[in-house]
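From the methods appendix. Each design record in this collection lists the tokenized structure first, followed by the designed amino acid sequence. Records were kept in a plain field format so they could be parsed without special tools. The example shown here is representative of the layout used throughout.

RECORD:
FOLD TOKENS (162 positions):
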């Protein structure tokens, strides 16, 4: 009986803490995910790859001619967290998270580029099944990523890598 009560409490906490996803229009999503970066096209492209690699992402596809970069990272849930999930709930409902980033860089003019980013998060259970797939729509995430790329562009310029 005690185990059932603990399982119910865990479920209530998980559901109660879940955030609601705002339904954004395509134009609102574009506003969040599209940034302008000052710098030469090649420099912005290479800076974008560098920032992703610095954060642990594995580059899967790159094509400078089209401006495409696809990268991903696999973040496994800690073993202790998996243990407690199995102990209280009876199964591991969150084995880990897989995040895929897609970027396209488009030349606006010689020194200004448009960076379009798309981040998708997939959560997996203990059997490798997909538990949840969601588009990351938090403006703060995209702003931070764009700012890191801007800093890397300036760093590359200061080193004469243009």
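DESIGN:
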């Amino acid at each position: 009986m005690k185990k059932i009560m603990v399982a119910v409490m865990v479920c209530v906490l998980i559901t109660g803490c879940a955030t609601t996803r705002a339904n954004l229009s395509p134009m609102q999503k574009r506003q969040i995910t599209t940034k302008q970066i000052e710098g030469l096209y090649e420099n912005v492209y290479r800076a974008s790859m560098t920032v992703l690699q610095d954060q642990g992402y594995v580059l899967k596809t790159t094509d400078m001619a089209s401006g495409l970069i696809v990268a991903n990272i696999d973040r496994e849930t800690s073993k202790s967290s998996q243990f407690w999930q199995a102990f209280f709930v009876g199964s591991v409902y969150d084995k880990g998270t897989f995040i895929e980033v897609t970027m396209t860089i488009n030349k606006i003019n010689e020194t200004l580029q448009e960076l379009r980013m798309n981040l998708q998060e997939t959560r997996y259970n203990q059997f490798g099944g997909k538990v949840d797939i969601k588009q990351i729509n938090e403006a703060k995430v995209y702003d931070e990523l764009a700012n890191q790329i801007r800093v890397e562009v300036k760093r590359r310029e200061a080193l004469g890598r243009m």
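APPENDIX NOTE: The two ends are 67 Å apart (CA to CA).
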